[in-house]
Amino acid sequence: MLIKYVIISSRVQTASLRVTVPASIKSLNYIREYAETGAVRFKPDVNTKVFLPSEEALVLIEAALATTKLKDGFNYKLHSIMRKFFSFIEDKHLSADDISSDVIKEFICFAHDSNSGSMGYVIYSLRVLLNYLRSVEAIDLKFDFNYFAPKSNPKRIIAAFSKEEISRILTKINTTASIGKRNYAIILLACGTGLRGIDIVKLKLSDIDWKSGEISIIQSKTGKPVKLPINGQISNAIADYILNGRPKSNCLNIF
Fold first, then answer.
1. What's the pLDDT tens digit per position in 139-148?
2. Is the dihedral of CA 199, 200, 201, 207 positive or negative?
3. In the 8-state DSSP scheme, what is residue 68?
4. Which residues contact 120 (CB under 8 A, 6 or more apart)?
5. Taking a C-beta distance cutoff of 8 angstroms, is the pair 217, 199 a contact?
6. Could you tell me the domains of the chain?
7. Are 57 and 86 in contact (CB under 8 A)?
8. Residue of 197, 217, 196 lying closest to 207 (CA atoms)
9. Bridge partners of 228?
10. Cβ contacts of 8 within 8 Å, gap of 6 or more
11. What is the pLDDT of residues 143-201, one digit of tens each?
């Protein structure tokens, strides 16, 4: 009864609430949709008011996006850029049949003025659209987008600790305490093997081959197996923690 009341109320009050609380109206629409269909589609509505090309262009856009397997949010961005592209060429009294390299170059320059921070989306949208138009033989144009590909952001390289810095860190650890033995072993293991923190946390006794001095794990981030050597200092630190510092536990993880 409550849902029905909310639905009826929302229908009556929609006009007065639209200006002040549009988010509430959207929420009520979700409730109405759930009451009527038993499901809710949290899909952004495509706003075609900003760039509104012809119906023929909109059909081509929908068909091009149907060839992708992208999430709704990403498709929404591509839809917006493709509408902008068709509005651009239609303002020049052109159609899909008239798309040429010069037209694409001109649009890329035009889009850069308002989409300089998202040119990757612009290039990808045009790729998807042109691939579709070629597949249905609407055009026979091969365009090299590599020249216009946006530069990737420079990666920040984190400097590694020097041997002296690692030594200074280790000397500050109280290895007579249980937690100190644990921290000492973890830091040595991280610095000596380069293992990620998540892989150190998941490390098990069965992952260590004490005779060969190797650790064999499946990396949590990549899912790929890796085998890494450990020196005597690392293996001794791990053994010292297991034998003299680790609390009694049925947990298979060392740390």
1. 887 777 776 6
2. positive
3. S
4. 149, 150
5. yes
6. 55-150 (1.10.150), 163-245 (1.10.443.10)
7. yes
8. 217
9. 215
10. none
11. 777 766 655 566 666 667 888 999 999 999 999 999 999 999 999 999 999 999 999 99
Only one residue has tokens 């170059």, namely 105
Residue type, 60: L
Residue with tokens 């009556």: 12
Length of the chain in residues, anyone? Answer: 255
Q: Element (H or E) spanning 190, and its range?
A: helix 178-193
Helices (H), 92-118: 101-115
Q: Where are the beta strands (DSSP E) in the chain?
A: 208-209, 214-218, 225-229
Task: Indicate yes or no: pTM above 0.70.
Answer: no
Report the C-alpha gap between 63 and 57 in whole angstroms. Answer: 10
Which residues make beta-bridge pairs with 204?
A: 253
Closest-CA residue to 106 (of 153, 131, 132, 98): 98
CB 214 within 8 A of CB 227: yes
How far is Cα 114 from Cα 121, in angstroms, rounded to an integer?
13
In Å, how far are 95, 188, 189 from 221, measured between CA atoms? Answer: 47, 21, 18
| Alpha-carbon distances of 179 from 197, 230, 238, 241, rounded to whole Å | 17, 21, 12, 9
pLDDT of residue 181: 95
Burial 35-70 (b: 16+ CB within 10 A, else e): eeeeeeeeeeeeeeeebebeeebbebbeebbeeeee
Q: How many CB atoms lie within 10 A of CB 197?
A: 10
